[in-house]
Amino acid sequence: MARQDEQVTPMESCAHCTPPTDRKVEQPHKKALVNRVRRIEGQVGGVLNMIEDDRYCVDILTQISAVKSALDGVAIQILSTHAKGCVRQSVMDDGGDEAIEEMLGIVRKLIR
């Protein structure tokens, strides 16, 4: 499984970036990403069970924090792949102004 801090080579980056109208990209490390999100899904289910079981508030909040951190890790991995693939290709093709603005917009959303 690729970790968020591992370098992504150009071959591993968004392998098939397509024009924005299609919005489909073959994700490298797709299996690892799916496994991570499924694990997060299990954590969210655990939070639900904790609430239903009237668990201590701090324990629930600790689990919520872990879920948020895990989601951030997935987002960083996908963002890194996007920057090193789709955005890089757009910069080489046409200067990339639109792709860079799009990426900055999503970064703004992620840091809120």
TrEMBL record:
Residues of the signal peptide: none
One Gene Ontology term from the biological process aspect of the record: negative regulation of DNA-templated transcription
GO molecular function: DNA binding; metal ion binding
InterPro entries, A to Z: Metal_Tscrpt_repr (IPR003735), Metal_Tscrpt_repr_sf (IPR038390)
Disordered: annotated segments: 1-30
Protein family per UniProt: Belongs to the FrmR/RcnR family.
UniProt name for this protein: Transcriptional regulator
Organism in which the protein naturally occurs: Komagataeibacter swingsii
